[in-house]
Amino acid sequence: MSEDTDTKPPTVTPARAVIAVCLIAPFVAMLWVSSYAKVEPTFIGIPFFYWYQMLWVLISTALTMIAYKLWQRDQRARKGGASA
Questions:
Q1: Is the pTM value of this prediction over 0.85?
Q2: Of 11 and 21, which is predicted with more confidence?
Q3: Which residue in 53, 54, 19 sits closest to 35, CA to CA?
Q4: What angle, rounded to 10 degrees, do the helices at 48-83 and 14-31 form?
Q5: Cα 36 to Cα 52: distance, rounded to the nearest angstrom
């Protein structure tokens, strides 16, 4: 069997660690219910329990976008390094 010389084996890089944190953080924040299961502080009359979750929708979107851009950059670097 011959190895495919165009790809490298998976490695853990700082960029991939950041990607993992970006993708795991929203899950941890939402599964840790006791941290936000309260009414105060309210924001424009909305209890903390609700606005905290809605805030995480926006944060999750931003973190997913960051993870995607880092992944694209990582893949370009791997392909560029393989051809050099």
A1: no
A2: 21
A3: 53
A4: 160
A5: 7
Q: What torsion do the CA atoms of 67, 68, 70, 76 make, to the nearest 10 degrees?
A: 160
Q: What is the mean pLDDT of residues 48-64?
A: 95
* CB environment 39-76: b (16+ within 10 A), e (fewer): eeeeeeeeebeebbeeebeeebeebeeebeebeeebee
How much is the pLDDT for 18? Answer: 94
How far is Cα 29 from Cα 13, in angstroms, rounded to an integer?
A: 24
Three-point CA angle 17, 84, 70, nearest 5°:
25
Q: What is d(CA 9, CA 54) in angstroms, rounded to the nearest whole number?
A: 39
